[in-house]
Specification:
The structure is a homotrimer of 373-residue chains. Chain A is of the alpha+beta class and 373 residues long. Chain A contains eight helices and 13 strands. In chain A, strands 2, 3, 4, 5, 6, 7, 8, 9, 10, 11, 12 and 13 form a twelve-stranded antiparallel sheet that branches. The longest helix of chain A is centred in the C-terminal third of the chain and has 16 residues. The interface between A and C is large, with 47 and 52 residues.
């Protein structure tokens, strides 16, 4: 390099003062779902629903092909918004009104738009504030099968670039986005019973009893694989993948180490719950609200439980029922790693149980009467 | 959660006393082979056979597309049986009469059934016993190309739920499953010689001499990637992926740490052997018997060797010969990690060589006379 | 094993004395690009160009499908040459005259040939020398869309099998390989502007100013995932994947540990640069020269910068310009890890900045005037 060049270092993503209520982002990139991405995430999360694993089963139920499970749809759509919305975030605070629409298949291309609803300062920390946004993901824009696949709001805690900058005031109402779970028709001529051995025999709509808590029996230890998984999703947030940045100033970062992208435990908890509450579902309808309650790091083992809150018939489909659950994620940490105030009491001696995630979930579940015996 | 809910915790998988001779399982799930799964496993194992890598080569040899190598076919089919047969197993003791049938391609869907042949208690450990099963994997059930792709027996050491429970006595004969390696026709009009540079020049049928031991030169270190690889296969056994469970009671588990799923070294040894004995094969015919002789952990480096036991002409195909080898896997551990009684003597000072795997293998190998010079 | 068998241990790859100027290799294997491989590498490297991510965008620009980014084309083509050329190498010294041709799509099969140009001994180390080769990669050999996708020369430092062996003298000229970047036609009827939100608004040809140094803001920590990534590429060099070999004799190996395959930082630096200099490119034309200047290990965080050296119009395409940059990769090491003579001065206290890679790069970049506002 002959002369000392002029140095440019672009700041990526937006800071708190950059957001303005009513502002709209059409996010860059877009993402075509390949079989590589499908396999990596459907199965890292131990999804048990045969719709995502067995093409014969999926087609017999009226889908075109293997169906992208809701956790992966969420990971793909959400990640598209990271650079504009949360690349400079400290934490994702809340998911609100997350709804699913058309099914996502391998080969479909996802593109996402976001509207800023509200921006407000933190009451206690002058360098932080909260941005409230609404995002909508479409597939195959401009093609005959263009469709909304997902819409959601979230609140995210974002850093300011300049502590003294003024924020844009105001608030806008969320758009009324038409996004309702697409369901294949029930076909009385189809031999559904001949496929019933491929899913659990005790997870039909009839099997759920409101008031029960189902502790899903499997756990899954996360490794530093999370760096690769997050990169594959185009999630560009540096707190997940830049160890040097952490090493320079560990105290600034949660736990002083790389934190696992929240979409990973989100999806993993859905997967861990699937043998008990998900493998006879035709789809998740909506997540009314959800949030991360503790960070997840490489080496932690994730567990999940589902609290069955309610159930009722599907308004138009006698073959289906609507199941209302709260999905809970947790991990265990050794006592010496500090006290956690909201730690449940049911941990072995020397360990604390730490709740990491909760999600209010509504699913469309098959009735045994129509699909099995 | 307003009230203390009723807690349900499903036990997954069967315990020793649940098995009954003659009992049949149609395993849940099923698995469509995607390009993601194909790439992850064909190539993690360093498979050198161009049938699994080069579609031009595979089609010229009469296959429809890239051919799933035998190690991956085994991983997919075997994993489907884990929840029902070995989720509560301590160890997989023996593979018996493992035979291959139709080729498996990307897009094919695998479903598996298992019959219990025998159940017997352990002579020394009251909480354990041995289950002997026969499993058969089919592809594309109900479609015009439905075919058996693999059948095998295995003996697995399974825990009892209740040490005092009685076992189901009796023994049934294995089914006579028609499963013979499908081979594409030899086409005299095909320019096989024009493809000969794509495989090794010294691994044709004519090159093997019974009585030789081929030490495959490459080694491959396994990392904690095994957790992800095992999850992708739907293998739900917790001893491979639940570090917290191990930490609670390390003495109960082999080595006191997460053990690598046996299908991984099985496949990896096949891959490591492939440059020397596999890359001019049209397929593996059968594995008469096989077993794991020591556990594998993250950090171990796997090596393989092939003992050429015999060779003879193919009964109907003058272009092919049948090669009989014993595939051996081993790793090295430092002396201080304890003595291993069956350690071969050819280890460097300070190290012990530990045999981890052996497999009696029969392959259909191309003759140079018909495919090369 | 009844008798002590005759032991065969094939040496794989060539040693310095095996190479002869004018010698040609048609490399084994070949590689069909699957969606699994595409996803793993396009996205591990954080490639931001929508041509590799968004099939709608790629097709609207005149490509058939998602376009393999140059870093992955390089990884696939290069890896095919490793067994013959560099399995027994100590280091890859220099890339020369690397040029791209036809685009590579999922489903295409890559095969590679290499010619040896020159072999010479090391002046200081009697067990080493340098081999200079020229390699050319074609896709879909024998089919109607057969095409050269890439050609390049490289110099590699290779071990001798026998320190006293004579080398083959002489030198041959490189072939004049026709390999020019294929570009889709500019279609005035296409609504390119309707896609402009999918790529950066400030990385069009008009935006670059020669003399600037763009420090790309993101870093990416590498983990031992590199072992898996390298195996997936069929790169068989043991210094990337055989920890036992290193443990036996750590002093013989760079850093005394597994070294990351150079193609990984090559590709990763391209990916890290892509949001700033790559996401409005239709393709990389050529890399005149490049080299690795320090090794990369698991745990290191990779950063990149691009020095804009020049720009000029495309000879035949008014919609494009040619951008000349030098791509620079670096990492930071703690001071106590030793002094690095060529360490730039701009590192935080307690750290040294170490240049790991440089590449002279020429790209065909879209003009805003034709593709955006």
């Amino acid at each position: 390099m002959p002369d000392a060049p002029r140095v440019i270092r672009k700041l990526t993503g937006n800071f708190l003062e950059d957001f303005e209520p009513g502002q709209r982002f059409r996010h860059k990139g877009g993402k075509t779902l390949t079989e590589g991405l499908f396999t990596t995430f459907t199965e890292f999360a131990m999804t048990a629903n045969p719709l995502a694993k067995n093409a014969r089963y999926a087609r017999a139920h009226g889908f075109d092909a293997l169906v992208c499970p809701p956790g992966l749809t969420m990971l793909i759509a959400f990640s598209q918004t990271v650079e504009d919305v949360s690349e400079n975030a400290r934490a994702n605070l809340e998911y609100i009104d997350m709804r699913f629409g058309a099914p996502l298949y391998v080969g479909d291309t996802v593109e996402v738009e976001t509207q800023v609803l509200n921006v407000r300062p933190s009451s206690s920390r002058p360098n932080l504030g909260i941005v409230h946004v609404q995002s909508t993901a479409r597939k195959n824009v401009g093609a005959s099968d263009e469709a909304v696949i997902m819409t959601w709001q979230r609140k995210v805690q974002v850093y300011k670039r300049d502590e003294n900058a003024d924020l844009h005031p105001g608030e806008v109402e969320p758009d009324a986005v038409a996004c309702e779970l697409w369901l294949p028709d029930y076909d009385p001529g189809q031999d559904y019973k001949g496929l019933a051995h491929l899913s659990s025999s005790d997870s039909y709509f009839e099997d759920f009893e409101p008031g029960t808590l189902i502790e899903h029996s499997r756990g899954r230890t996360m490794t530093d694989e999370h760096i690769h998984l997050t990169a594959i999703l185009d999630n560009t947030s540096q707190v997940h993948c830049n160890q040097y940045m952490i090493d320079l100033n560990p105290k600034q970062y949660v736990g002083g180490k790389l934190i696992i992208f929240g979409g990973i435990p989100f999806t993993l908890c859905l997967g861990l719950s699937s043998p008990d509450v998900g493998d006879n579902s035709l789809g998740d309808v909506a997540y009314a609200t959800g949030r991360h309650t503790a960070p997840l790091f490489a080496g932690d083992t994730v567990f999940a439980a589902s609290h069955v809150r309610g159930k009722h018939g599907h308004p138009t489909r006698p073959d289906l029922g609507i199941l209302e659950t709260t999905l809970l994620g947790h991990k265990f940490v050794r006592d010496e790693e500090g006290r956690h105030e909201d730690a449940p009491e049911d941990a072995p001696e020397g360990w604390k149980k730490v709740k990491i995630f909760e999600l209010e979930r509504t699913s469309a579940v098959k009735r045994r009467s129509h699909y099995a015996s």
